[in-house]
Amino acid sequence: MARKTDIPPSYYGEPRKFDPGFRGPIHNRGCTDVVCCVVFVIFILGYIALGTVAWIHGDPRKVVYPTDSHGQFCGQQGTPNANKAILFYFNILQCANPAVLINLQCPTTQLCVSKCPDRFATYLDMQYNYRYNKSYWEYYRQFCKPGFDNPRKSVAQVLRDEDCPSMIVPSRPFLQRCFPDFITRNGTLTVANKTVFKDGLGKTRSVIDLRDAANRVTAMQQGVESGITSLLDAKEVGMKIFEDYANSWYWILIGLVITMVVSLAFILLLRFTAGVLLWLIIFGVIAVVGYGIWHCYWEFSTLRGKPYGDGDVTISDIGFQTDFRVYLQLSQTWLIFMISLSVIEAVIIIILIFLRRRVRIAIALLKEGSRAIGYIMSTLFYPIITFVLLAICIAYWAVTAVFLASSGDAVYKVMSTPDKCVYANLTCDPETFSQTNVTKVCPGSQCTFAFYGGESLYHRYIFVLQLCNLLVFLWLVNFTNALGQCTLAGAFASYYWALRKPQDIPSCPLFSSFSRAVRYHTGSLAFGSLILAVVQMFRIVLEYLDHKLKGAHNAFARFLICCLKCCFWCLEHFIKFMNRNAYIMIAIYGKNFCTSAKDAFFLLMRNVVRVAVLDKVTDFLLFLGKVLISGSVGVLAFFFFTRKIPVIQEEVPSLNYYWVPLLTVIFGSYLIAHGFFNVYAMCVDTLFLCFCEDLERNDGSPLKPFYMSPQLHRILRREQGSKLYAAS
Question: What residues form DSSP beta bridges with 204?
Answer without folding.
Answer: 198
